[in-house]
Design a protein that fits this description.
The chain is α/β, with parallel strands linked by helices. Helix content is about 35%, strand content about 20%. It has three domains: about 210 residues, no CATH class; about 350 residues, P-loop containing nucleotide triphosphate hydrolases (Rossmann fold), CATH 3.40.50.300; about 50 residues. The strands form seven sheets. An eight-stranded mixed sheet has the order 18-17-16-22-23-12-24-25, with helices on both faces. Strands 10, 11, 13, 14 and 15 form a five-stranded mixed sheet that branches. A hairpin with a 6-residue loop joins strand 5 and strand 6. Helix 14 runs antiparallel to helix 15. The mean pLDDT is about 85.
Length: about 625
C-alpha cells in the first residue's frame, strides 16, 4: 500500500508555512546523531544534501530540490541542488536566530547542539508564519511527504506512519515539544492509501516542473488557436479530454482543423497540401496551441515565416503528446509515436534509428511499405499464425467492438490462397460464408483498416517503449475525418460508441482523446446516451451572413430522432425531407399566409405536394383542411 495522492496534496498545503530549518537542517542533524553539549567534526552540508536527495527531489532527473516549506517566493519553490545546503541552509544555521542552538566556531567543520537547544528551537517556532505562530511542526504531514514513495503493510494506520517518523529521526521525549504528533481529523473521510505509488507525473500536476525538467510525456490537445490562416480569420478550439465532435458544411474547414491539430501535436504537416497557408499576403498568421499532460502546460505561439514560406516547429516543448493516430479523409493514415519520434519535439539527440512520423497511403496500409509497415494483409496472417507473440487477440476484440449490427461480429476466418496471389490473405466470417478481406465491401474495409491501424500503432508503441526501457503512454489521441464514410446507416448508428470503448481493449490504463469530424445525424444520434458534458464537447462550423466562417462550441442536445437532428442548428435543414418536398411545403405555407388564396394557387401547390410528399406525410392533414376551408376539393 502507498500513501494516496490526496494525502500528499494535503501535506504540501499544510507544510508551506513551516520554516525549512525544522524539516531540513534539524532532521539531517537528528538522523546523523549530532551530539549535545560538545562540537565534533560533522559534515553538516553533506548530511543536508543527502537528506534533500532522499526526500526533497521528486524529479530524480532534475538538478533541483522542491522546497515544500516556507519560501520568500511562493511561485518559485524549486531550488538549485548545487550548493543549496552550503549556501542557503548554511546562512540559516549560521546567521539567523537558529545559530544560537548550535555549538559551532565560524570557519570550522565542528558542530554540536547546545544543552538548551530544544528551548531555543521551541522559542523560534514563531518563525513559522501566522496563523500558525508558535505552533509545533505537524509531524503527520511531514511524515507523509517524507514517506510518499514508501510501501506500507495493509494494516498500517496513520499513527504507525507518525511513529515511524519519530523513530527513524531519533526524536526523544524532550523534542516532542517541537512537533505535533496528533492525527488530523480531516483524514477520516478520505482514503489514506492507494494500491499504486504516486508517480512523478502525478506529483507534477500540482508541484509544477523544475526549470531543467525534461518534457512531460503523454499529453493531449488542450487548445488550438489560429489567426489569419485557412478558411477562418480566427479560431479558438479548446477540445474536451475524451470525445470531440466537429460538424459543419463542406468547405468550411473541418479537415483543416484536424490537420492543424495534428501539426500542433506533432510539429509536422502530413504533406504540402495539408499545410496551413496565410489568407492574405499582408497578414500576420500565427498558430497557438497547448498540450496538456497531468497539468496544463503553457501556450506556445508560432508565427508564419514568410522568408522560408513555412511554420517553424518549436523544438523544446514542456509536454510531449502521447500516441497519435489520424485517419484522414482520403483513406491514408498518419501515426506519431513518442517512443520513436520524441526527438522531434524535445532536446534529445536523434538516435540512428530515429524516424519521422509515419504517413501511409490507403494501398500502403494494406500492402505494406518497406521499412515502415508490413501492411494489414501480411500482419493479419502473421498475427493469426503466432497469436502468442502478436496482438491477434486484441485485434480480434477490437474488430468485434467495431462490427456492423446487420452483419454480426467481424470474426477472422482461416487465411486462404487466391488465384494470382503469391501469399495467403485473411478472411472474415459472414453469415453467408468466409469472405477474403480483399473482396470485402468498402465500409467493412474502412473499419477493418481503422481497427488494424489502431492495434498496430499501439503494439509498435509498446515494442519501442520496451526497447527504450520506458513505460508505454497512458494517453492516446485518435483523429478521424468523416467518421461515416462508406458506412451503412445501421453502422453509422453504432460505430462511434464502439470506438470509444476500444481504448480499454488496448490497455486498462489507456485514456484516449477522440476528435471526430462528421456530417452524419446518425453518428450524432448514436452518442446521445453516452455523451458526458464534463468530458465531451460538440463544435460547429457555419458560414455567417457576412461570408466569414464562424466556429463555436454548441451545447449538446439530445434530440431523440434523426429528423430532429437534421433540423437542428448542427445540420440546419429546414425540413427533414427531399429538397423538392421542402420547396413544395414552403410554397404551400406561402399560399396559406395569403389573405385570399385562389383555387388555382391551392391546386398548383397541391400538385407539387402530391409529387414530392409521401401519402402519410404529417403535412397532409393541415393542408387538406386548409383547402377545404377555402372551398377547394382535392
Amino acid at each position: 500500500m502507498f500513501l494516496s495522492i490526496d494525502r500528499i496534496k494535503e501535506a504540501v498545503e499544510n507544510l508551506n508555512s513551516v520554516h525549512p530549518f525544522y524539516g531540513l537542517t534539524f532532521l539531517a542533524c537528528k538522523k546523523n546523531r549530532l551530539p549535545v553539549g560538545e562540537a565534533v567534526p560533522f559534515p553538516i552540508s553533506t548530511y543536508e544534501t543527502e537528506l534533500l536527495d532522499e526526500y526533497y527531489r521528486p524529479d530524480k532527473g532534475a538538478e533541483y530540490f522542491y522546497q515544500v516549506f516556507r519560501t520568500s517566493v511562493k511561485k518559485d519553490r524549486w531550488v538549485p541542488r548545487k550548493k543549496y545546503a552550503s549556501s542557503t541552509l548554511q546562512s540559516t544555521r549560521t546567521q539567523s536566530v537558529f545559530r544560537n542552538a548550535f555549538l559551532h566556531d565560524s570557519g570550522s567543520d565542528s558542530w554540536g547542539w547546545k544543552e538548551n537547544y530544544i528551548e531555543i528551537l521551541s522559542a523560534n517556532l514563531s518563525q513559522n508564519i501566522p496563523p500558525y505562530r508558535d505552533m509545533p511542526v505537524p509531524a503527520f504531514y511531514l511524515a507523509v511527504w517524507l514517506y510518499r514513495e514508501r510501501e506500507w503493510d495493509e494494516d498500517t494506520t496513520a499513527q504507525d506512519i507518525v511513529d515511524a517518523f519519530r523513530s527513524e529521526f531519533l526524536l526523544d521525549h524532550l523534542e516532542v515539544v517541537l512537533f505535533d504528533f496528533s492525527i488530523p481529523a480531516s483524514l477520516l473521510p478520505a482514503p489514506l492509501f492507494e494500491d499504486k505509488p504516486v508517480s512523478w507525473e502525478d506529483l507534477r500536476g500540482f508541484l509544477g516542473s523544475p526549470p531543467d525538467a525534461k518534457p512531460e510525456e503523454g499529453g493531449t490537445l488542450a487548445l488550438l488557436e489560429t489567426q489569419g490562416v485557412g478558411p477562418y480569420r480566427s479560431l479558438t478550439f479548446a477540445p474536451a479530454e475524451r470525445l470531440n465532435l466537429i460538424t459543419g458544411d463542406n468547405g468550411l474547414g473541418k479537415s483543416f482543423l484536424l490537420e492543424c491539430s495534428w501539426w500542433a501535436l506533432t510539429g509536422q504537416w502530413n504533406d504540402s497540401h495539408a499545410e496551413a497557408y496565410p489568407r492574405e499576403i499582408d497578414a500576420k498568421p500565427k498558430i497557438t496551441f497547448e498540450i496538456a499532460g497531468s497539468n496544463k502546460s503553457e501556450k506556445i505561439t508560432v508565427s508564419y515565416d514568410w522568408s522560408t514560406q513555412s511554420w517553424p516547429s518549436p523544438k523544446k516543448r514542456p509536454t510531449i503528446p502521447g500516441l497519435v493516430v489520424y485517419a484522414r479523409v482520403d483513406g491514408s493514415f498518419a501515426i506519431w509515436d513518442p517512443a520513436r519520434n520524441r526527438p522531434l519535439l524535445s532536446n534529445d539527440k536523434p538516435s540512428p534509428r530515429y524516424q519521422r512520423p509515419i504517413v501511409v497511403t490507403r494501398s500502403q496500409v494494406w500492402g505494406g511499405h518497406e521499412g515502415t509497415i508490413e501492411g494489414l494483409v501480411r500482419d493479419w496472417v502473421t498475427w493469426q499464425s503466432r497469436p502468442e507473440k502478436h496482438p491477434f487477440e486484441i485485434f480480434r476484440k477490437v474488430l468485434a467492438k467495431l462490427s456492423p449490427p446487420d452483419l454480426g461480429p467481424l470474426e477472422p476466418g482461416e487465411p486462404r490462397r487466391l488465384p494470382g496471389e503469391p501469399k495467403e490473405v485473411p478472411t472474415l466470417r459472414h453469415p453467408y460464408g468466409e469472405i477474403p478481406i480483399v473482396h470485402a465491401s468498402a465500409g467493412v474495409r474502412r473499419i477493418v483498416t481503422l481497427a488494424y491501424l489502431i492495434v498496430w500503432a499501439w503494439n509498435e508503441h509498446k515494442v519501442h517503449s520496451e526497447l527504450a526501457r520506458a513505460e508505454p503512454q497512458k494517453r492516446m489521441v485518435i483523429m478521424i475525418d468523416e467518421m461515416e464514410a462508406h458506412l451503412h446507416p445501421l453502422w453509422q448508428r453504432s460505430v462511434l460508441p464502439a470506438l470509444m470503448e476500444v481504448g480499454t481493449e488496448l490497455s486498462r490504463d489507456l485514456q484516449p482523446q477522440i476528435l471526430v469530424a462528421t456530417h452524419s445525424p446518425l453518428v450524432m444520434a448514436s452518442i446521445e446516451s453516452g455523451f458526458d458534458e464534463s468530458k465531451d464537447k460538440l463544435f460547429h462550423l457555419d458560414l455567417s451572413q457576412d461570408g466569414e466562417v464562424a466556429f463555436q462550441e454548441l451545447r449538446f442536445v439530445r434530440y431523440g430522432s434523426i429528423d430532429a437532428w437534421l433540423t437542428s442548428e448542427v445540420f440546419d435543414l429546414r425540413h427533414a425531407r427531399s429538397l423538392e418536398g421542402e420547396r413544395a411545403i414552403e410554397n404551400a405555407r406561402a399560399v396559406q399566409s395569403l389573405k385570399q388564396p385562389t383555387s388555382e394557387d391551392i391546386e398548383a401547390v397541391h400538385a407539387q405536394l402530391a409529387k414530392s410528399l409521401a401519402s402519410d406525410d404529417e403535412f397532409w392533414p393541415p393542408w387538406l383542411y386548409f383547402a377545404e376551408q377555402h372551398g377547394v376539393k382535392l
